[in-house]
């Protein structure tokens, strides 16, 4: 964008769109925490409902961008719909991870980087704890949303459009964490199937 640069308008647009996407992703972990806390407040006090516009446009953009990229991959690689679904789940499960990585890169890019044994152990712990925290928050948010629906829809019969829009926006915020859970369950299932097949093969060879 500086004078003298030979970038075309299309290149500048792609540059802005790319960085805007990364910035959107970097906000997703904050939105998950915000939605979980505010939904807890809403469960006990209906007057604390914030406008859903705080969450819905950003979350909708991130999810649509993720699934759009998956569809582009299907068109170019001619994947089956089964693989497309698993690719979409895999892509959505990385949303908050990408967001944390972007924030880390923004705030630590100027610091020297050295690989040490302590650093490797710390990264291993973070690799385990981060998805666990994400799944826990998303599951808690989903339970809180169900409790909000039960209370205001069926018990008090005071449901309105503000609650409905907040529930929809918060549910979409929980989708990446739920995709992490689905991905982990599917991975454990196929891992167990592979281990069982290896045991059967070893048993057949021993006979």
Topology:
Layout: H1 9-44, H2 56-77, H3 81-93, H4 95-108, H5 117-155, H6 161-206
Unreliable stretches, pLDDT < 50, 5 or more residues? 115-122
Beta percentage is under 5%
> Could you give the order of the helices and strands?
HHHHHH
Give the biggest sheet: none
Q: With helices defined by DSSP (H or I, 4 residues minimum), what is the helix count?
A: 6
Helix-and-strand structural type: mainly alpha
Give a description of the structure.
Helices cover 82% and strands 0% of the residues. It contains six helices and no strands. The chain has helices at residues 9-44, 56-77, 81-93, 95-108, 117-155, 161-206. Helix 2 packs antiparallel against helix 3 and helix 5 (117-155) packs across helix 6. It is flat and about 70 Å long.
Q: Notable features of this structure?
A:
207 residues, mainly alpha, 6 helices, flat
Give the gist of this structure.
With 207 residues, the chain is mostly helical. It has helices at 9-44, 56-77, 81-93, 95-108, 117-155, 161-206. Helix 1 packs across helix 4, helix 2 (56-77) packs antiparallel against helix 3 (81-93) and helix 5 crosses helix 6.
């Amino acid at each position: 964008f500086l004078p003298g640069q030979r970038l075309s308008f299309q290149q500048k647009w792609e540059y802005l769109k790319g960085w805007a996407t990364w910035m959107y992703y970097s906000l997703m972990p904050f939105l998950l925490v915000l939605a979980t806390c505010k939904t807890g407040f809403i469960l006990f006090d209906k007057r604390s409902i914030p406008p859903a516009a705080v969450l819905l446009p950003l979350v909708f953009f991130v999810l649509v961008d993720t699934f759009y990229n998956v569809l582009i991959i299907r068109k170019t690689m001619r994947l089956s719909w089964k693989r497309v679904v698993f690719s979409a789940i895999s892509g959505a499960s990385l949303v908050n991870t990408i967001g944390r990585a972007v924030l880390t890169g923004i705030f630590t890019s100027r610091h020297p980087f050295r690989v040490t044994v302590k650093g490797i152990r710390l990264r291993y712990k973070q690799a385990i704890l981060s998805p666990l925290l994400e799944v826990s928050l998303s599951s808690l948010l989903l339970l809180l949303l169900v409790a909000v629906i039960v209370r205001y829809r069926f018990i008090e019969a005071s449901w309105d459009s503000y609650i409905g829009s907040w529930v929809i926006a918060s549910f979409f915020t929980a989708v990446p964490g739920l995709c992490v859970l689905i991905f982990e369950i599917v991975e454990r299932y196929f891992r167990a199937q592979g281990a069982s097949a290896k045991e059967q093969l070893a048993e057949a060879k021993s006979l």
